[in-house]
Amino acid sequence: MGPDREDDLLFQMLASLEVVHAIVGIVPSNVAITFLQTFGRCMVVAGAIDGTPTGQRSPGLPLALFCWSLTECVRYSYYVAHLLLDSVPALLVWLRYTIFIPLYPCGFLGELLCGYWAQSYFAETGKWSLGLPNRFNFTFSFYYFVWIMMVGYLPMFPQMYLHMFSQRRKVLGRGSASKASKSN
Fold first, then answer.
1. Which InterPro entries does its entry note (predicted)?
2. How far apart are CA 147 and CA 142, in angstroms?
């Protein structure tokens, strides 16, 4: 792993601080939703992409990276404008609460494809797994863990996606986008 990949992994893992920010109230975010989104992305980056050569070749990787990047550019532009300006421009508010509509499902699909492409590597190599016998008398299969994560993520997607729509309704459904952006 070269220094650039180590930096990418470090910064993605630092994104876990978003959960801490939600817990302590620095940002008014739902802790459970923030945890699921952050944990899912960290699993994809650390497990599927950084942990395997097969995840890096997944057709889902460019899709996930595009969706993540575009979403974060809009999101952080919104945050900066919210901090620096008296009112956030209406177009930026609209983008912040609308761009997820196509990007969230596409990013989710990209993440699932990365996990799917990575799972074969874990099955073949046993990487990050622990078989019996061992001194702990415990077994763990990262291959099955990846499958459990992917299948478990499926029923969570509608809940997280609908949560984003409820956030959108709160901000854009109350009239002036600039007034709503200051209250959020």
1. Tyr_Pase-like_PTPLA (IPR007482)
2. 9
- Residue 45 inside a domain? The answer is yes
Q: Does some domain include residue 2?
A: no
Q: What one-character-per-residue DSSP string does 35-96 give?
A: HHHHHHHHIIIIIIISS-HHHHT-THHHHHHHHHHHHHHHHHHHHHHHHHSSS--HHHHHHH
Model-wide pTM > 0.90: no
149: nearest Cα among 48, 74, 56, 12: 48
Catalytic center residues: 104, 111
Residues 6+ apart with CB under 8 A from 24: none
The total number of structural domains that make up the chain: 1
Residue 174 lies in a domain: no
175 part of a folded domain: no
Range of the domain at 23: 7-169
Phi and psi at residue 88, to the nearest 5°: -75, 135
